[in-house]
Queue: 3 jobs
Job 1
Amino acid sequence: MRKLLWEPSAERKQAANMTRFIAFVNQKYGLDFSNFNQLYDWSVTRNADFWAAMWEFGGIRASRPYEAVVTDFEDMIGSKWFTGAELNFAENLLRYRDDRMALIFKGEGQPSVRLTYAQLYDQVARLAASLRRMGVQAGDRVAGFMPNMLHTPIAMLAATSIGAVWSSCSPDFGIKGVLDRFGQIRPKVLFTANGYFYNGKQHDSLERVAGVIKEIPSIERVVVVPYTEANPDLAMVPGAVLYADFLAKEDGLEIEFAQLPFDHPVYIMYSSGTTGLPKCMVHGAGGTLIQHLKELMLHTDLKREDTIFYYTTCGWMMWNWLISSLAVGATLLLYDGSPFYPDAGGLWQLAQDEKISIFGTSAKYLAAVEKAGVKPGSEYDLTPLKAVLSTGSPLSVESFEFVYREIKQDLCLSSISGGTDIVSCFALGNPIGPVYAGELQCRGLGMKVQSFDANGRPVLNQKGELVCTASFPSMPIYFWDDPDGEKYRKAYFDVYPNVWRHGDFIEINDDGGVVIYGRSDATLNPGGVRIGTAEIYRQVEALPEILDSLVVGQEWDNDVRVVLFVKPAPGVEFNEALVNKIKSAIRENTTPRHVPARVIPVADIPYTISGKKVEMAVRDIIHNREVSNRDALANPEALELYRNQPALQS
């Protein structure tokens, strides 16, 4: 039985960008839509008309108009969007140049720093001039090994204004993790800070940067932002220069925005790399821009008066998504540090202080806040807050209920899901629609997302593979160093011809709501019945005795048995009574097939740096297979806790 948690008021619906867009489409095409589902169905049957409307509604600036919205639409890989158009990504993000606040940076334990749109434009102009003077051209790669600070979007915008391609990874990556990424794309310039703060500790970055540039000879210049100290020693980093010394000194510069094709590369993003060398996914400027405008304006209801925050590092696609909010003229809040510093309410204090209206985070964070006993709604003034966004993993029913019980009753809780692969979402929020516990409200407009059964047929109200059966603008334009496109095809199109298979296990209901059960490659298959890992996590992690958990399938006796690893809460004794409680909770709320054959205590659960559980790596460990790329993990040492577990030998 679906549980309704929230519906927008009539006033809220009337004021929503989505409502304005429906009226715009009705007028432009002579239609009579009155709700989201009508709009969605049209958007995936008249794709070209939808994206043309979004181009106009989003106010995309182009020096040359497009000749065709899409060519070769029936060929997912071969289709081309907005052919003939010429534009610049950074120019579209810098369309506002007034004294409204553009960026607020709050570093852990540091005072906030602010930048208006006029100041942002000036800073980008000066840095772009410096990059041009050192010879950076369109197509060159510029990389960031940076905290989530003001200088990072400035560097990205300066690079992309020239037509250079931006790529970044988080400063908590080890040398090998950085080399696995930047070593493939061979950047010309590297931006870094001298260090960063996390959980009350100061961490140095320059020693790792020195190791990186020894191995990547293409890097001609390292630009260092002083952060953890005012005058860092750059002696160990050849070719390094302080940011202030690199920045052009002139005031009042105009940016020379390079006018480039719609599909000119803007970002290089990386797969997690847990199963080998990370794939380098190249995203086009126009596709990224129009998709982000759609998601921010329509699905998130972002407006100029909003302050939007997403807890993210610069190595996660949510950073790229957040920065596109500049194109809407909103205020972006950048935070770098631990989400639990100085305490579990730290980010909610920030929400109060900076009057955040759209608060983005992860399912893991919301569950941790609840476990920590924080009650943000009663402990902080969250009056401006109108939306909470969650991604990274499926948001449990219990976390949905926690948000409405302990954060705020009147807000749009949008669980969103997509990926680095598309630098955007397949399913996300609908500000004019209801929120049901455990459900993503809708599929993205223009995204023909379906659930395929085992026979490759679309199904409703039953679990299946998440697929997208029609082309969309934010597909990668190609993979780096993949001249014949074989890596690209193998990643998404090797199961269903001409259909994007994303690798999530989902269910779509009659209303268009989506439930995600976890990664399909991590799906459990005891007795031939497919079970999503999220179904088990929901039951286990609701128990106060359990801090975290991870479930995998172990090949055993010509079948697969379910193995559950649990991290007990501090002070909790792991014993048979707890095992029985765990199994009972799973059995009573799911099916007997979900009940694990083994429940094993562990001291830690391994995660990627972007906060995703690594079920595949643990599955490899328990089957004595090698895990090839541990640098993609936030805590790689945790994997050894799973090796040679006695309970798995019988």
Job 2
Amino acid sequence: MSEARPKIEIVDTASGPDAPFGVSASERGSRERYALKAEDTFAVIDAHGDINADGAGSDGVFHADTRYLSHLRVTVMGADPLLLGSSLAQDGTYVHADLTNPDIARDGRIVFGKDQVHIERTVYVHAGGLRQRLMLSNYSQATIDLPVTVSFNNDFADIFEVRGTGRARRGTRAARTLDDTEVEIGYMGLDGVARATKVSFSQPPASLGRSEASYQFKLSSRERAVIDINVSIANVQQPQPKSFLAGLLRARKGFARKVAWCSVSTGSNDLNAALERSAADVSLLMTSTPSGLYPYAGVPWFSTVFGRDGLITALELLWIYPDMARGVLKFLAAQQATASDAHSDADPGKILHEMRGGEMAARKEVPFGAYYGSVDSTPLFIVLAGHYWQRTGDDMLVRELWPNIEAALRWMDVSGDRDGDGFIEYYRAASSGLVNQGWKDSGDSISYADGALCRGPVALVEVQAYAYEAKTLAARMARHLGHARRADELERQAAELKRNFAASFWSDEFECFAIALDGDKHPCNIVTSNAGQVLRSGIAEDAHVRKIAQHMLSPHLFSGWGVRTLSDAAVRYNPMSYHNGSIWPHDNALIAAGIARVDRVGAERIFKGLLDAAMRMDQQRLPELFCGFPRRRGRAPVLYPVACSPQAWASGALFYLLQAMLGIDIDGRSNTVRLDRPHIPAWLGHVEFDDLAVGDGRVSLRVSRDTNGAAAVTVIDNSADASIEAV
């Protein structure tokens, strides 16, 4: 039965102000930054342990999209200490900085020489605040007077203000001292919510004002002074141990439980280090929700639920950590749209794009309180559900989610395809929404060959591939649940989509899929990474798969570090842009997974390029994106200045690439582990998996390279009594 297709005013995607929701790239200080996170609270601090030491900047302590501390600075003897060194703990739970005093001069002469006071600062974040221990040790030969000042402040800025969005009005702020060790900074927002930050000290300072604490220590040689600073978010009721060290131990134990899912080792020390960092970052971003754990997208700008990001991260890690997918699916099902709303780009059955908890979202100054302007989250929800079911055999969850899957399928057929041509299109329903609603959502990311911006409604190439995969998987689930007629219909729709896809999107001239069809069904014939994301779905013919693989690995797209989002031959190519020539690790992982179907060695080039990039980046961490400049001998990749780091789907990329290289397919329904043409290059040597969940048991395997370069599989443990197949 056909359904009436709702009508909506179309806002042309080639116009409209998109700037308010971009990241403002203001100049940042020269000090290195570290990100810490626990549940809904995160902090960005500098290498000294300060926050915006000069009084302005984008760092801070944040909770639920509001900044709760915008300034923290420690001076010793009236001066900023000198940095000796600082580091993030390997598990990502705390930062430790070693500093010392500079030369202290009075009236043109040095009265106290440098390097005589050792200053240690240890910082960690807990759910609802930040703690810092300041330890000062006198290594001079004399007793010294040591003045120490801690300045602090907060502006209660919304995360969108921090990103550069201006506001005509703000709420009211007030600060007061509560006693001789504690200050409260309060804010009454325009949304009617009272927010407050408390800054307290473990020992009373000599003087305490509303934004500064001053100490006057007298330390004999080898004597030490300790100050614990506690920043707590008054709105969060989360009991913490009184002791600084007990709180840190709790944080580290909690993190160890989160990261226990990762049990991979290889013959490459570089890959081991990168996987360890990636696992730590994914675990750091995982946040407890009523539906289970959900990977928040990234720190600092996207430390919240994003539908697309969570779905792709869960897909990347599904083979090794299926529990994450369960939490993502249940959360997004609970938030699935049930009504149409232009402000939030919502329609019945649509899956969430983004959820925000700050003042601006509450007042609808931005549309992102619960925003649905994502064209791909809905088919990706079905894709993840189908792969999760195949991976785990969890019939109970599939039955629970089936009404949500059917609602998502209806959205794809009706609201997602308003002109009824079988392709899913997007356009924003209100001028406040996102202009572009695929993963490349910057305003200039979808264009024609001459550089002009695409006129909507827009049908993205990779979204049609997601739709094909979604309907194929939904048909399998429907048949398993006893809905045979529905399964037949979904299979028919998928076959029809596959037939029409190549005719509409393939360009014989470019030998590539167009990035999109415009509102008049004219193709946007530019060579982009989007075409590479099509390959893993099965919608493309084998001949087209090989052509696209060649494009992805050509110098126009492959920089040596990874595949660019846009060919360097395109008019809009800019290697420093967000989506028009940069390199995104998650994009590369999805592309390589498709290429691996026909060319394992080609997929290896992408894998090795990204691994080499990670090893030349801070903390061996792949960020959200980096610049697309060609790889040059002796040079590191060029960073994108305001990329999120860590970013969940970037952290999942190496795991997905490893799965693609080894051809691992775990089927919980048949209790089977299958390795399809596993490829172990010489630099990798071997891969060992410990305690992979299969059915109700566990499997441990070692895949190694033999003397002839072929892969050999050794079963170490098989408590699951699984069938292990290598082909």
Job 3
Amino acid sequence: MCGIAGLIDLTGKRQPDAATLQNMAEALWHRGPDADGYLIRPGLGFANRRLSIIGLGDGSQPIFNEDGTVAVVYNGELFDYPERKAELQAKGHVFRTHTDTEIIVHLYEEYGEGIFERLKGQFSIALVDFTKRTIFLARDRVGICPLHWSRQGDWLFFGSEIKALLASGAVPAAPDPRGLDQLFTFFAMGTRRTMFEGVNALLPGHYLKIAFRRDGKPAEVVERRYWDLDFPDAGSEDDPRDANALIDEFEARFRRAVDIRLRADVPVVGYLSGGVDSAYVLATASKLRGAPVPSFTIQVPGKGLDETSDALFTARAIGCRPTVLRSDSSVIANTYPQLIASADCPVIDTSCAALWRLSQEVHDQGYKVALTGEGSDEAFAGYIWFKLRKLSYFLDVGGTRASDALNRLLRMRMASHMSGAQLKRIDGLMGRAHAQTLLYHLVSQSRDRYFSTAMKDRLGDYVAYEDVPIEAERVRRWAPLNQSLYYGYKIHLPGLLLNHKGDRVAMANSVETRYPFLDEDVIAFVSKLHPRWKLRGLTRDKYLLRHAAARLLPKEAAFRKKGMFRAPLAESFFVDPPAYVRDLMSREALTRTGYFDAEAVRRDYDAVGAGNGDKINVFLKMGLTGVLSTQLWHHLYLGGGLCELPDHWPRPVVERPTLPPAAA
């Protein structure tokens, strides 16, 4: 993948400043250290930083169509490009490069504005049609590749990361309290809103259209959706009787999804945890390659955290050459400044720091591409909250939805910071009480505990759910499990797994991650299935997936109980804290930023530091991590002066164990 940036004069007249555009591109150097490219014309400036993976010698951007009337800069991969290229050549299109980027301009010639629904892969795109004087900014269906934009007067700035916009000098770095509230509700940033006021994330499956006006007045910025995940109405899902035939059909689609994601002019490796998702990806990839794909695993020491033995069992079964990176509390604490700088926002999930280090190790070993298993839990109901919610569905006899009322009572019982009326409003915004509702409610108790009075006053009656792009009426027609899966695709997946745990930590180290479970055909196939092929009973999650995986993996790996990849929370920072943590969490620093109640934060911070963390629940510990990372974000982006950060951090321990061959 790459990084893109640019600025657009909405009047279509002024020529952008070349130095400004170069500054924006340089802020994305880590995304594309191999080359850069620029397009500057009256009304627009596009920039690209290239990470060379396909068409190594001739893929520099921007890329034009045959007569130069269409140009594109792009970040991502279009995995079916050989087939699409052949189709386009058969229609008379002339190609000058070997890169997948070039199919975009020719597909645009064929389909115009309808191009985006025909693209398969992961991408963010800036495309200009000089003849029609129209610009498009687009993002892939599920949000693998990021794209941000901000309007400042009659200029529009865009970039793969917010730091590119800030580097223009024209986009101010000002905090958005509602962005912070999103983080302290969903522990993710999956909507249009960001931590910076006036800076927007382009939603997955959407594009912006900017058509310059003939009268010279500023063009309107129009947002349009070209794709959204859909499920059949409840009762009309596909529910075949022949399990083996269904497994065959899924297996064929998944094999194709992995196969096309092995397309690269550089070697491909894989992330491997103890779960079935990454194991199935790696086993399929190794079978297709005819040789084991190297694996990279994180070891998080601690009871219930360390998946190393399970991962090495799988690696041995597949024949992988494993790398194991040890990520203890000191590694997490030492990595957080780099993580926040990479994410452009606070990060609550500490395991993101471990993934940051893992991608660094992938890069240091000379690799650029890694396969991963993200997206499986969203497709096949892998998380425990899906099972907990299913327990109460038996109450919904005759369409009463009594389980929603029970869910609200449970939320108030477990954390009483919201009234029944507030919870009912949230459920109305989302269509009903979904599987993640209880989780998000428990996470948001730290908002009530730690936000300052001034922050709460600024937020008023706002709730983060207002910004979630949900069509409640459409969602209500689906089976309850599919409703909850949809919310996962809309919030958790783009806001955390593909963001803080995905693109940002990987591309910070010039590594592209690829996701077979997020293949368009795989998603379409699984979404049509009856919920019982995803979650059977209350315990058998990923039912279809596990039975397919058992054809390639030992049963122990295919049917291993789901484990959440996580790392220690507040304990990573507050037990024997580094100097920067002590400074950021001081009363003076907390008062200076103004986001948090200094006394409430210090009370719990001191308790964890004194070894009494067991008296504070896990969700408040997540909140304390959110407080620290917000302080760190403020220091990095809004003026500094809160702490001193070391110039050098120690590297984690890395092992490359030699495994005996698997038993025949």
